[in-house]
Amino acid sequence: MGNITGKVNLLMLKGAVQKMKAQSGMIECLIIPIEQNHLFKGEKGIYLDMIAFELKEKKENSKDTHLIKQSLPKEVREAMSQDQQNAMPILGNLSVWSENQQAEPVTSPSTNR
User: Fold this and answer.
1) Which of 19, 34, 39, 103 has the smallest C-beta neighbourhood within 10 Å, fewest atoms?
2) pLDDT band per the 50, 70, 90 thresholds, residue 3
3) What is the pTM (predicted TM-score) of this model?
4) What is the 3-state secondary structure (H, E, C) of the chain?
5) How confident is the model over 22-67, as pLDDT tens digits?
6) What is the dihedral angle through the alpha carbons of 32, 16, 51, 82, rounded to the nearest 10 degrees?
7) Using an 8 Å Cβ cutoff, are 68 and 55 in contact?
8) C-alpha 73, offset from chain centre
9) Contact at 8 Å (CB) between 40 and 46?
10) Residue in 97, 95, 103, 101 with CA at minimum distance from that of residue 1
């Protein structure tokens, strides 16, 4: 598989942008509620589970190969209708930008003589 790059728009999650006072002055912060966004609290961090879907049709002048949506816990996903699942926001995109795979050897049919 090649190298993959991507971008995630954190403003697609439930949250707020606020200015807060810091030692260096006012700074702009993104506040993301953990429970409302179904974030997972692990031992070493707080995680956003995501899933990538390969684009069926590539847009002209775009290197994007996949779109990213949030992967919800099973019980949350099963409680949603299909329309609600389809309406989940696209969080970002991925692009495969380097292929390191070797081509498979070409084989020709054997002939009996």
Assistant:
1) 103
2) confident
3) 0.70
4) CCEEEEEECHHHCCCEEEEEEECCEEEEEEECCCCCCCCEECCCCEECCEEEEECCCCCCCCCCCEEEEECCCHHHHHCCCHHHHHCCCCCEEEEEEECCCCCCCCCCCCCCC
5) 999 999 999 999 999 999 999 999 999 999 999 988 788 888 889 9
6) 110
7) no
8) 15
9) yes
10) 101
Residue 85: φ, ψ to 5°: -65, -45
d(CA 35, CA 32): 9
Across 4-13, 65-74, 98-107, least confident range: 98-107
Measured CA to CA in angstroms, residue 67 lies from 31, 39, 56 at distances of: 24, 19, 10
**Domain positions in the chain:** 3-98
